[in-house]
Design brief:
By secondary structure, the chain is an alpha/beta fold. It contains twelve helices and twelve strands. Strands 8-7-6-9-10-11-12 form a seven-stranded parallel sheet, sandwiched between helices. Strands 2-1-3-4-5 form a five-stranded parallel sheet, with helices on both faces. Bound molecules: (2R)-2,3-dihydroxypropanoic acid.
């Protein structure tokens, strides 16, 4: 009998095909429905789980006594309780690196779209409001040569800095737990304390993982420190920002604009005030969502799941100290 594997939410077709060669695979569109008896039966027997945004905590793990590995098709893994999984001898894997360039492209796109008001002007043209010279109130602001502050200078932050500095002549500031000599050497990036970065940046891109340390790290105090002309971009997780304070900062023009790929609740609530603001550009959490990158991520997670269930060490093991 082949080992049982649960696929959750989304996976690209070639990866699903590959999984089916090795395992007895069942696809579920939601892992949160613990009233679904078929799901619970599968979960009891499952040795592997793979998918996107799969929430796994102790209560969930109690229902999965045979689980050996969970592969998330994302670089972020704040939705997995790694400590609890490690305690129970369950491997966790993710998909770092593959998506760096794609997410960096998305962040640059958000920065440009917000500064140059691309979605708003697109609506203006399509609504047939373009009847002559456009009023000055619709002008955007320059991106080139402005100072970019990157919070979370990891692998993705590095390639954002590359694009911004080499492509747009932007001076780069960064805030990170560790020094980044490569970015300092290649892009003349300067490491600053968070408060100084917030005070000095024209654009701020938040791209840190969501951890206990970064949870709600940008709130009223931090928005107050920003320039009134600052444009704030969030490509990390909604949980890194106190969303109610972001809304207040935008409503009171404490900051100029925001570009958001992530929200406190996803999908974002239909009555969220951010959706009514012209100076906010929104995306539905698509940082890595190109066909090529999603496929590469699905295949990477699949290969690691296969490795984990056939006695090999997965390449992108999160709890690697435990499974040497
Ligand atoms: C990730 O992989 O964690 C990204 O947020 C997906 O866009």
């Amino acid at each position: 009998m082949k080992p049982i594997v649960i696929v959750a939410n989304r996976i690209e077709e070639p990866a699903l095909k590959k999984l089916k060669k090795h395992f007895d695979v069942t696809f579920f569109t939601s892992m949160n429905d613990l009233n679904d008896l078929e799901f619970l039966e599968n979960l009891k027997l499952a040795e592997g789980i793979i998918g996107l945004f799969i929430d796994i905590d102790a209560e969930f793990l109690d229902l999965a006594p045979n689980l050996k590995i969970v592969s998330t098709i994302s670089v972020g893994y704040n939705h997995l309780d790694i400590e609890e999984m490690t305690k129970r001898g369950i491997m966790a894997t993710h998909t770092p690196d593959i998506l760096n360039d794609t997410v960096a492209d998305t962040m640059i796109a958000l920065m440009l779209a917000t500064a140059r008001r691309i979605p708003e002007l697109d609506r203006y043209v399509k609504n047939k409001e373009w009847n002559g010279l456009i009023p000055e109130e619709l002008y955007g602001v320059d991106v080139h040569h402005k100072t970019l502050g990157i919070i979370g200078m990891g692998r993705i932050g590095h390639v954002i800095a590359k694009r911004a500095h080499l492509g747009f002549d932007m001076p780069i500031l960064y805030h990170s737990r560790t020094n980044k000599p490569d970015a300092e050497e290649q892009f003349n990036a300067k490491k600053l304390e968070l408060d100084d970065l917030l005070k000095e940046s024209d654009f701020i891109i938040l791209i840190t993982p969501l951890t206990e340390e970064t949870s709600n790290m940008i709130g009223k105090r931090e928005f107050d420190l920003m320039k009134e002309s600052a444009i704030f971009i969030n490509g990390s997780r909604g949980g890194t920002v106190v969303e109610s304070e972001l809304i207040k900062a935008l409503e009171s023009n404490k900051i100029k604009a925001a570009g958001l790929d992530v929200f406190t609740n996803e999908p974002v609530e239909k009555d969220n005030p951010l959706l009514e603001m012209n100076h906010v550009v929104t995306l539905p959490h698509v940082g890595s969502s190109t066909l090529a990158t999603e496929l590469a991520m699905s295949m990477h997670a699949t290969n690691d799941l296969i490795k984990g269930l056939t006695g090999e060490k997965p390449v992108s093991l999160i709890n690697k100290e435990t499974f040497k």
